[in-house]
Design brief:
homodimer; alpha/beta; eight-stranded parallel β-sheet; six-stranded mixed β-sheet; 11 helices; elongated
Chain lengths: ~350, ~350
């Protein structure tokens, strides 16, 4: 019986700091800013913001003003940019917390500078080929007279180094230089870091890679995994051949098997699509014993086949492991037919974890 | 320009109350308990717990002790059952908050009653064919002498009324009657309510159906949708034929189109798998204008094709709608190749929504 029935999310702050140090030195002398939007990808904006601030980061990106206000408490003198811009009722909030919006349109930029309340110089996002947010080159002259503190764009295919859109976006981005010759430029997020120095400009924006996601899937992973996710075993039972396990009776046993039910599910951000290819592991004396998922992931539970794990080891076990340094976010994402980014964000939003920050 | 850049989640408490009243009267005189685990499926355990308590509910189910403690504040004299049982370090917490564990194994039951600290009578879960949690019939005599307050099991295929496992589980469940002739029995959750009175026993456990999820997919939906989800439009741009939209450049335009970028993404629990079949809507004067997603869902943004929406309407628009009474959780779930339950839980965990409770 476990001490607690809640699953446990262990966040390795040392690894996050090491990832930051590695990436910062890799891009030096370019500024290494940190992206802590989405509650630091779910890991806790205050906790992770503090780790990165103490590691020397002084430029941060968040998505919303509310995230910026949380971050401000642990990064008192940092520059904080807000990627989604700002709404017209949010000016006071931005000023109070010294937040700089990243403005996506000409109209937003003109309106921002019209208001004398808006003291801090903002960034402007420019369109180079992602076709998501940003001012197109053909419109840029309308705002060229404004004192932006940063010109920013974002790559669409940075995880595919040979994709032709990369060089296209690079060339498009350079065309904005003539309009803002003395303003810092930033094109690359984690993915772009490894495309070469030409993509770094004055500042890179480190996000996913800080948190151990492999943004260089075509080569050896350059960063360390930062999370361990374990779930208490609530019950181990023997199920007979011909019986099914889980909702919809989608999984029928062809022979008698030993099934463990663990306390975690899609209510904790574990996608239903983790079944049927996902694998849990029992870690014992540094050895890892795989236990494939059987049946569907339900809201609070996952069932897995532990028949191949020696009885003596199983009897002592408290937890099954879902994510660790060997079975990391990227591997987990593949099993769910998605990417590590979405897995981290989804798990990170879980409200029922016992969270431990280790260093 | 929107007032705020954050997406908005509107929760209709009146509909939740009406769903409860309808289901309660449908199962009467059987007890209609409410399942508010997973933070009331993400909608807020305090807010929704209070609505249901005021509507007369006096028996609740949560998954964890921490959820029970939150609920206790708004349901002072209700019976609160904890579905995942309890860990051996959680006894004091359970006692302090008057929580009753639902025990899954013989060992858990014997241990619970061994400790004089554990005052409240617990429930026991019994295995009838889901093969997830619960004591098998062949083991039950070991605990038949214990004073449980509830005997509980759970159906695997209740959303498929003709599935043979339903009658099998029903018959298996009845076999436990001989061991506990005077204890209340509960087999059905929302799905089981519509399988007929034989499945109701003494108490049904209403969860998904309360929140507007159709647990009767084979027939007309018996309950009302309870959530509306809208996202601010940050930018509308014209994209030329031959250009791509979004990450991976997976979507290339065959002709010039108008693309809107809205402020919501997988960081808000909108699955990446919502692309490419998902549709957003612009609601204007009670008319709904569809805008299909183009390109991938990213962490903070979704791009959709608004070319077919009249210019005059588009120019006034502040929000695109993702979920409402017409395009509900079930429809959304189908577009993501999953179920409404997972969509609701995922969205409900979003931390960046402006949440409004309406009545």
């Amino acid at each position: 019986m476990a001490k607690h029935t809640r699953p446990k999310l262990i966040i390795n702050c040392k690894h996050i700091r090491e990832n930051y140090a590695y990436l910062k030195s890799y891009v030096s002398p370019c500024i290494a800013s940190c992206v802590v939007k989405d509650n630091a990808y779910g890991l806790g904006i205050r906790e992770i913001g503090q780790v990165l601030y103490q590691a020397g980061c002084r430029v941060f990106f968040v998505a919303y003003g509310c995230e910026g206000a949380q971050l401000r408490k642990v990064a008192p003198d940092a520059e904080i940019y807000v990627l989604q811009g700002y709404g017209h009722e949010e000016s006071a909030h931005f000023q109070r917390n010294n937040l700089r919006p990243v403005l996506p349109t000409v109209q937003d930029a003109l309106r921002y500078f019209e208001s004398p309340r808006n003291r801090l110089t903002p960034a402007i996002q420019v369109e180079t080929g992602l076709n998501r947010l940003g001012v197109h080159l053909r419109e840029i002259s309308a705002v060229r007279h404004l004192p932006f503190s940063l010109i920013l764009s974002h790559l669409a295919c940075a995880d595919e180094p040979h994709h032709s859109l990369n060089t296209h976006q690079l060339e498009e981005f350079k065309k904005f230089k003539e309009f803002f010759p003395n303003t810092p430029f930033s094109l690359s997020a984690s993915d772009g870091v490894f495309l070469g120095r030409a993509y770094h400009f004055d500042m890179v924006r480190l996000g996913a890679a800080l948190y151990g996601i492999n943004t260089k899937p075509y080569a050896e992973k350059p960063v360390k995994n930062c999370i361990t996710l374990v779930a208490p075993i609530l019950q181990i039972k023997t199920v007979k051949a011909g019986e099914s396990v889980g909702y919809g009776a989608t999984y029928t046993l062809s022979e008698k098997r030993k099934i463990a039910t663990v306390s975690i599910g899609y209510g904790d951000g574990i996608f239903r699509s983790f079944s049927p290819t996902g694998i849990l592991h029992l870690i014992h004396n540094n050895r890892s014993y795989p236990a494939p998922i059987v049946g569907r992931v339900s809201m609070d539970n996952i069932t897995c086949d532990v028949s191949n794990i020696p009885e003596a080891i199983l009897n002592q076990a408290e937890y099954m492991t879902l994510i660790d340094d060997s079975y990391d976010l990227d591997t987990f994402g593949q099993a769910c037919n998605t990417i590590g980014y979405e897995v981290l964000s989804s798990i990170g939003h879980g409200t029922r974890y016992i969270r431990q920050y280790i260093d």
